[in-house]
Amino acid sequence: MRTSILNQPATNNFSRKAKITGAVLLSSFCLVGMTSCENEDDEPIVDTVSQQDKNFALSSSAFVNAQISFGELALANGEDDSILEYSRMLVDENSASKTELEGIVEGKDVELSGGITADMQAKYDELAVLSGVEFDKAFIRTQIEILDDSKSMFENEIDNGQNFTIKGYADKTLGQVKDHKAKAVVVKAEVDLENL
């Protein structure tokens, strides 16, 4: 009888440990199961490239190339210090955007523009024959117009693009476009005041 009394606590102790271990394992499996479930509220991460994404990459690369060209032209033909400062910023930030976009599409079936559109080339040619104050005024007006017109391209990609990285680039670059426009408005006011 004594033997069975001594073995009873050991059996109860083993049974208790087995139940605790089972509960811990069951909790672990439930936790792993819940964390691996897809949250249906989140947008799926898409790394494929749609035709919309390809069109945007081509258009935005032409836009960035044009902005770099306009900035370089302003550095050569501009006179006002605020125009020259704005132009340096334009070249630097758009060169960084170009490099970023090239990195994003590397290894993907996406074509980037090596030049600028015919419309941008026509604006460039109009500005290229000007210099000094006349150039400064025309350049900054053209910048504001170009930046206003370009917003819809970025907004369209944000709303309709499929590739999350390209959409992220569009969102970031739209912020840059808005910032450049705000700076261009200030520069235009400075140039207009200085040349009354």
UniProtKB/TrEMBL annotation:
Pfam family, one: DUF4142
TM region(s), chain numbering: none
Gene3D superfamilies: 1.20.1260.10
Name of the protein this chain belongs to: DUF4142 domain-containing protein
Domain DUF4142 residues, every copy: 52-184
Taxonomic path: Bacteria, Pseudomonadati, Bacteroidota, Cytophagia, Cytophagales
